[in-house]
Description:
Blueprint: E1 12-18, E2 22-30, E3 34-41, E4 46-53, H1 55-58, H2 61-75, E5 85-93, E6 96-104
Amino acid sequence: MSATLPGANSASLPPAILGQRYRLERRLAQGGMAEVWLATDLSLTRQVAVKLLKPTLAADPVLAERFRREAIAVAQLSHPNIVAVYDAIEEKIGGERRQAVVMQLINGKSLR
């Protein structure tokens, strides 16, 4: 099951499910390559962070592969100061290829 995501400028999101498991709630942050969303893991009933590669970048095979390799590399690490990676997803949403990394949600203030 997937839903169409609104445009990148949207700060709120109607319920959208990624990977038939993660319900996106609201955007937490945005950078040049990706957006980070607060999401609910419907299987384990916990909040997580979902990093979504921007659609224009996900369409580039080189950048999409780099994003995937980064997720794999971070998932191999285990340290109290490194965010845990729970899942990596690639699917089509609204006709666009999207890639996402599901991570541990760290609550607190932005370091910016």
